UniProtKB/TrEMBL annotation:
Keywords: Hydrolase. Residues 26-239 form the AB hydrolase-1 domain. InterPro entries: AB_hydrolase, AB_hydrolase_1, AB_hydrolase_fold. GO terms for molecular function: hydrolase activity. Gene3D superfamilies: alpha/beta hydrolase. It comes from the Bacteria. Coiled coil: none annotated. This is Alpha/beta fold hydrolase. Pfam families: Abhydrolase_6.
């Protein structure tokens, strides 16, 4: 059985969450173009060992929003959910939600342990130029009300070939995805100004952290044009600058959350004080 609730962030924004399970608390942070739906199956799997708080980030689902956007406000949102869960909980973040969780840890938000999965930092030489160009273009499209084109741009940026973009337009979830398009700049902002891990800032993270990527994350056609080992390179770069970080690879793990494959590595790390295994 689950219960639904809301908290008020520091700026007054209403943040909606679903709570289920029993045990130590863990807060789930969703990635781009998601309102917590993709994390929900993972939360259900973790519920036998944890009290799970799966929240909708600002501007998504039943959560509110306040302009202008700032990453600081999203950090305050996460802190408010953690406070609601009793303070200093575990945290799991997927994709850009993992980058947000790392920023929160670097800002001093109280956490016990942190797990991040498939961080989308770009370790390519032209990452900063491409990131700035993407932000400018997606904002311009959204300002003109061209939400569908903004999402198509994001798909191409994330490695989708044209055939995948065409199929996405016909998918049953297309209208739902378009309803979240205004949050695309939010996720871009969470990746920083360079779309690479901020080494100096992340060096302040003292939370025991497990950095995971899926070995099959780029097998799906929608990511076929990403550079080989894109997520692995990003994970390695984060581990190199977070003093408390440990590294893991989820065997056959896809980019979209696979609850069965992730529940073990996440649960074991959050509950076991011994060092995490190097591969999973």
């Amino acid at each position: 059985m689950s219960t639904f609730g809301t908290v008020r962030s520091l700026d007054g924004t209403r943040i909606a969450y679903e709570r289920f399970g029993s045990g130590p608390a863990v807060v789930l942070v969703c990635g781009a173009m998601d309102d917590g739906t993709e994390n929900a199956p993972l939360g259900l799997e973790l519920a036998s060992r944890f009290t799970v708080y799966n929240y909708a980030r600002r501007g998504r689902g039943d959560s509110g929003d306040v302009a202008p956007y700032a990453v600081r406000r999203e950090i305050e949102d996460l802190a408010a959910v953690i406070d609601e869960a009793g303070g200093s909980t575990h945290v799991f973040g997927a994709c850009s939600g993992g980058a947000l969780a790392l920023e929160a840890a670097a800002a001093g938000v109280a956490m016990n342990r942190l797990v991040v999965y498939d961080l989308p930092y770009d370790m390519g030489a032209d990452a900063e130029v491409q990131h700035r160009r993407y932000i400018q273009r997606v904002r311009a499209l959204l300002d003109e009300g061209r939400r569908g084109e903004a999402f198509e741009l994001s798909m191409r940026t994330w490695g989708s070939p044209e055939e995948s973009v065409r199929r996405a337009r016909k998918h049953a979830k297309w209208s739902h995805l378009i309803s979240l398009a205004h949050t695309l700049p939010y996720d871009a902002a969470c990746m920083g100004t360079t779309n690479q891990p901020p080494a100096e800032r992340f060096s302040r993270i003292g939370v025991p952290t497990l950095v995971l990527n899926g070995s099959a994350s780029q097998d799906h056609p929608t990511m076929s044009e990403l550079r080989p080992n894109f997520f692995g390179e990003a994970a390695d770069a984060v581990v190199a600058c977070v003093p408390s970080a440990q590294r893991g690879v989820v065997a056959e793990g896809p980019h979209v959350i696979d609850a069965e494959k992730l529940k073990g590595p996440i649960g074991d790390f959050l509950l076991d004080e011994s060092p995490a295994r190097t591969t999973m």
